[in-house]
């Protein structure tokens, strides 16, 4: 009783700090970007209302479409790279095995490292002159295969995607391992008694039983790789010749290099809805398949 | 009976075969796992080992251990990249942002999980929506907002976005943890005459220790590694955080590989030690954070 009387005031006091900071610095910026996206503005002089013309300009810019396509490429490479590798390693690790913990520790390691450190390390690895990969190729006598990995438009995107895949396999590995360990022992035991081989058990029992987790992982993978920015910014800056430019990088360049705050805000709005839409579509379509 | 007693060569041959098969299988599994482990760890190891080589040795002996350990790279990296300042800035931002986020997040979670009021569900969903916001879509408006508030390029600039964007996950994890406590906990405390905030501070918060540990670790790692906001909001070299400073350092000294590797190794070390010490908590926290985010 004593609690109920005082509680209304206390609830307000307790929620206010979090609510204020979150609203002002996370929600207001989104709303503001909607507003700015309708303006022509260099960030300093008077704003000019231009309606939807920023969006019109955006959709007519081939560079924007190129960055959207590159973004999609990163997403697809991540899903096709990270999920299968993580799943296979998780299946191999999910048994009584000496050293399983060691492999788990190593597997997750890249996930905790900062993207900047990873990008710089891999830039050194890809380096034409002294990089690990070219040096390795030279050592085994395959000098003809050495490339300017990050500087050649036909390799840059692949090189970047390999790093993206490398960075996050461990996250999905741990997620899959946790799901695999939740499968009741008796189910697999029963399959074994019925004479099912491990191969069959994996395909017919194990994978269907963790299907929900696989879907969650795919969604995570899509929304995560859509947000790739730091890694590409540090590794290639979107180059060479815009071959690795993704939407967030396009937005960054258009806004801060060309001082087009209105236009940049329009790109922000598009990224915002594009992300939400893609996650929505995947959740819906994969959800349907499940039934 | 007789049949069973008779020595039958077939089963034993078969079991020999199955033993061999098992051995082949086990070796294949270990081989595959080892390849995975090498790919995962060698890039980092390669960098750390080569950071101790002189420029000359690096060009001729890239794969071996350094013949004589050279620490010149470390000295020049520390001096040219101002690593001391970068470390100081990163540690300050990380600790302050984490403490504030977890404290006000825990306070909000306490009311969202232990009290019934009209707006409860709505406010909770409002917070959770934050996990869907792609951070990059807020870079431009965040820059404008902080500029208009006169908060660009100050020692506390990064606190605002870091706190705001990590509150949703913090509140999500803490609320779902606090919801599990039985109702009578507060009731007996109220009988003893404890006030609402007293109950939070001396009962609910200590009881939530495992979840608080998880969110502290998560916040710390995310803040320590954050780059985009720092890139957009901080120009002053004296205020740069570690990731931002490293990125610009590498851009300036593209030819000095040794110093670059030394700088990277030094910035890698704290998080590596942190990871090896708290592996279980970190892995648990980051996977939970990812799945729920």
From TrEMBL, chain A:
Gene3D superfamilies given in the database record: MetI-like
Family: Belongs to the binding-protein-dependent transport system permease family.
Protein name (record): Sugar ABC transporter permease
Alphabetized Pfam families for the sequence: BPD_transp_1
GO cellular component terms, A-Z: plasma membrane
Domain ABC transmembrane type-1: 68-282
Subcellular location: Cell membrane
Swiss-Prot/TrEMBL keywords: Cell membrane, Membrane, Transmembrane, Transmembrane helix, Transport
A Gene Ontology biological process term: transmembrane transport
Lineage: superkingdom: Bacteria
Native organism taxonomy: Bacteria, Bacillati, Bacillota, Bacilli, Bacillales
Major location (coarse): membrane
Membrane topology type: Multi-pass membrane protein
Transmembrane segments: 9-31, 72-93, 105-125, 155-180, 201-226, 261-282
UniProtKB/TrEMBL annotation, chain B:
Keyword Nucleotide-binding assigned: no
Keyword presence, Transmembrane: yes
GO cellular component terms listed in the entry, alphabetical order: plasma membrane
Membrane topology: Multi-pass membrane protein
ABC transmembrane type-1 domain sequence ranges: 87-278
CDD domains associated with the record: TM_PBP2
Family: Belongs to the binding-protein-dependent transport system permease family.
Protein name (Swiss-Prot/TrEMBL): Carbohydrate ABC transporter permease
Natural source organism: Peribacillus psychrosaccharolyticus (Bacillus psychrosaccharolyticus)
